[in-house]
Write a structure and sequence with these properties.
2 copies of one chain form a homodimer. The first copy, chain A, has 266 residues and is an alpha/beta fold. Chain A has an 8-stranded mixed β-sheet with strand order 3-4-2-5-1-6-7-8, sandwiched between helices. In chain A, helix 1 crosses helix 13 and helix 6 runs parallel beside helix 7. The longest helix of chain A has 19 residues. Chain A starts with a strand and ends with a helix. At the A-B interface, helix 2, helix 8 and helix 11 of A face helix 2, helix 8 and helix 11 of B. The structure holds adenosine-5'-triphosphate (ATP) (2 copies) and magnesium ion (2 copies). One magnesium ion binds next to helix 1 of chain B.
Amino acid sequence: MRTIAIMNQKGGVGKTTTSVNLAAGLAAQGRKVCLVDLDPQGHASLHVGEEAYNGTATIYDVFAGTRTFSQSQKLVDSNLWVIPSNIDLAAAEVELSGEDRKEFILKEAMASDPEVQKLDYVIFDCPPSLGVLTINALTAATEVFIPLQPHFLALQGLSKLFETTALVKRRLNRDLSVSGVVLCLYETGTRLAQDITDDLFNFLSHSEPSSPWSRAKIFDSRIRRNIKLAEAPSFGKPIFDYEPKCAGAIDYKNLSDEVIEQEANA
Amino acid sequence: MRTIAIMNQKGGVGKTTTSVNLAAGLAAQGRKVCLVDLDPQGHASLHVGEEAYNGTATIYDVFAGTRTFSQSQKLVDSNLWVIPSNIDLAAAEVELSGEDRKEFILKEAMASDPEVQKLDYVIFDCPPSLGVLTINALTAATEVFIPLQPHFLALQGLSKLFETTALVKRRLNRDLSVSGVVLCLYETGTRLAQDITDDLFNFLSHSEPSSPWSRAKIFDSRIRRNIKLAEAPSFGKPIFDYEPKCAGAIDYKNLSDEVIEQEANA
Ligand SMILES: Nc1ncnc2c1ncn2[C@@H]1O[C@H](COP(=O)(O)OP(=O)(O)OP(=O)(O)O)[C@@H](O)[C@H]1O
Ligand SMILES: Nc1ncnc2c1ncn2[C@@H]1O[C@H](COP(=O)(O)OP(=O)(O)OP(=O)(O)O)[C@@H](O)[C@H]1O
Ligand SMILES: [Mg+2]
Ligand SMILES: [Mg+2]
């Protein structure tokens, strides 16, 4: 089972769009996938048409210990489950702050639930912050994918991201590594996208062997800017159900294929 | 003197791009403008070429009380000053949490500094959060401009934003009102941008007379998506110095003109 945190503390860079469409792309290839919405904004939940109303199981129940991980999973398509979130999760950040082992609630919920082992992929959509919800994803996961918009200011936040993953790896989760960067909102044909991608490539090729980045690559599949990807959430559908022939669907299919190919090298 | 908070807790929607280019546009028309970078990421500072190194005055000094507001201003162009920020400001959020009147530090620093009154505009670039730094902008300012990307998920965060401004108005700053929404990253010719703009318009026209939104309008000037706006920060220049003829410069000039026209109706 692969456990992947989709993470970047910068807002609006494509975390949710990537979490939802990668999960859907993997499920379409027959993998059993659970998408976990870790953002109190509940955008991933909205995006798959699973707005969490009163009484619905949410990831908050897992944090509060009132439901198990698998009890909170909701089937949204063949091979695709979601554990939705809603604004209750914002309370979790406060409630957890005093708790012992607050960084490991998700990990321990998954480890103690045999049903979870039947999944091929668990994908965590992280909120735009480095708080306790993101840290729970980073201890529950072994892989990190970083969506990144190839803009100048986007690179500035990267060093903070690196520090956090390195800290988590050293202190909380020895198995953590950054598998790669997914270039999102890619404006093809612009100098800026090319320059920033080159800068990123240079940065990654000079990383310390002991850092969690040492084997991170830039995924070959780049997600181009495509209005269809921004429309899909308003229909509560992954891109493949909304507009299967558009550039956004092609790009996320390519990414899913690339992620599946990695299985052979694991 | 007009004091304007450029605010939206959602990340990557154009707050910094708008703060910098609106400030520069107003200064180009002869207004004395001070741009205040309230984000520990320091993006507005970078964008005007004022990265704050050791020893440079920053907005942290104003929060710490070690420098006055006007002592921290740095002239970056004719009529345009910036008070830069850097990562030290992240410490302020923690240090302030116990303080009495922590929501009013900026306001009081400005009120006690006669030099500040010589300015025509103070523009606060807020971080993507509703924490103490943003609250300081909302008590120091009388106006709020909300940059918004006309996407489906962008509307979801709006109610939280409304609650916060209403709460601040009621409890901390009776003079606060939301002047308007600046549509940013506008993808012309797309159904999505048009639909979301219509939804926003309907929302605003049905607001409570007592809410801070009751006279909020959507600025006529919309800022179109334009790669030049994303390139300018890497040169440390507002758009008018970097690429004066591009669509981004035209749009921000229009916005500056529209803001200046408001002076007649004040
Ligand atoms: N490739 C793309 N082309 C066009 N629009 C996109 C693309 N990727 C994402 N978007 C849109 O851009 C906005 C931000 O994307 P998204 O919500 O996935 O980012 P995020 O990193 O999850 O944001 P947050 O930090 O708020 O969680 C959304 O409105 C989304 O629909
Ligand atoms: N109209 C536009 N056209 C193209 N790129 C833009 C436009 N406006 C902003 N950008 C780019 O989009 C990214 C996000 O914009 P910006 O930094 O202004 O948003 P922000 O709301 O201040 O983000 P944060 O929440 O991180 O403070 C930046 O890389 C910026 O250069
Ligand atoms: Mg998201
Ligand atoms: Mg900003």
